[in-house]
Amino acid sequence: MTDTRPIGVFDSGIGGLTVLKAIHQRAPEETLIYLGDTARVPYGSKSKETVLRYSRNNVKFLREMGVKMVVIACNTASAYALPELVAENTIPIIGVVEGGVEAAVTHTKGVIGVIGTEATVNSGAYSKAIKARRPEARVISVACPMFVPLVEEGWTHGDISTAIVRAYLDRYKGQVDTLVLGCTHYPLLKEPIARALGPSIALIDSAEQTALKVKETLDKLGASALAGTRGGLRFMVTDSPARSKQVGERMLGGLSMGEVELVDI
Ligand code: DGL
Q1: pLDDT value at position 1?
Q2: Mean of the pLDDT values across residues 98-110?
Q3: Which residues are the active-site residues?
Q4: CATH number at residue 138
Q5: Is the pTM of the predicted complex or chain greater than 0.90?
Q6: For the chain, how many structural domains are there in total?
Q7: Got the DSSP string for 176-212?
Q8: Does residue 1 lie in a domain region?
Q9: Same domain, yes or no, for 196 and 128?
Q10: Same domain, yes or no, for 113 and 146?
Q11: Which end of the chain is flanked by fewer CB atoms within 10 Å, N or C?
């Protein structure tokens, strides 16, 4: 059985494109509709109630577009809204926390670091999920609010990013063996992060794990598109399509976004 309906992917902004890219690489036959809520970004400094309300809007919009599944490509929205969204919807809803946690507990020798937005860290979603799988693991969670604007500005390499990354993470050098990059933007800072924490640190990027989970879920449901075909990509944002395209294409590293549509949700 095949299902050619699109998969909806949403994020608070354009950071979730790192997740879209991983899904596209793993399942090129799937058509993906990306929704970036750029009018209301950032979610990472907002309350659970607000993030849940915005996330519900995003899912409703994507469902009206006829998607067969929704991927919450935002750590903050996954941390705050996943259980409610799963309970309220009949189509599969996949977040990014689980994938990162699964990889982290496989890698760790004992102490896992989790970095994310203030909301993600305050939600405790990562530490709870890690403890549920590995009760003996130690988890150190650190909010790094300056990382998102840094990436949005394109400052992912060089002196400024090195200094800011070190200001947040230097004190954890040698203390954690595995670090979960618990925010859509952070994979772009892998290089300065690895330099700050030393070469033996295992960096967990949940995009790849999430893409695997998407594929597995579709296969299990018999809802994948026809293998060997090529699905389309469609990009929508709630504000600033030109800026979203400029920053987004940098994030996608070589993948063109074509026309970025402005939508009112
Ligand atoms: N997408 C958000 C996340 O992964 C980062 C940007 C924001 O704060 O909205 O947590």
Answers
A1: 82
A2: 93
A3: 74, 183
A4: 3.40.50.1860
A5: yes
A6: 2
A7: -SEEEEESTTGGGGHHHHHHHH-TTPEEEEHHHHHHH
A8: no
A9: yes
A10: yes
A11: N
